[in-house]
Amino acid sequence: SNAFGRLIDKIYLNSVGWRGIRQRKTHLQILIKQAVADLHAKGLAVRVVDIAAGHGRYVLDALANEPAVSDILLRDYSELNVAQGQEMIAQRGMSGRVRFEQGDAFNPEELSALTPRPTLAIVSGLYELFPENEQVKNSLAGLANAIEPGGILIYTGQRWHPQLELIAGVLTSHKDGKPWVMRVRSQEEMDSLVRDAGFDKCTQRIDEWGIFTVSMAVRRDN
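The structure assignment produced for this chain is given below.
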């Protein structure tokens, strides 16, 4: 019966993790739309960058019917993701206002030089993968340089994970083939990194299991 109990636990935790990720996507899309509306209400142009977009699907889904958005730049470290993302942009007929380029989300010089300057930056599911705060600080510093005061940062957090050991055994690619070690940052720690970089947090969403957060912060005047 113990083995059966462990199996049930594993199935439950697996479903919680995936349901949490689906809920995070919903929260991301809600806050992206809210950020677009807030920027538009402030009279700021809406220029979006996602610095680690994967294929970019969730951003394109959120922004497909947002006429206020003048420019969308998707970036990812993976050449394959960039190629597949470019294909998807073309299929959706969004090539006129969406670009997809290869880029390093932790390179502050690259991020500081983004043109046109973004007014909405999205960082989803990235910082949670890297335990060292130094990399996260570099990334946030670059975004703080790029985003003008009043611009918005949307970022995700992860307060715990139901299957840390299982995931570490499966995912190795982020660490040059070494087993992947995940350090769960507290929400307070993540928020303080964002605050120190020059952003004031104003909103947060979290799933019902208390795993994944999506937060919004405004670039303050220096």
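Interim note for the steering committee: The longest helix spans residues 2-41. The helical segments are 2-41, 57-63, 79-91, 108-112, 133-146, 164-170, 187-197.
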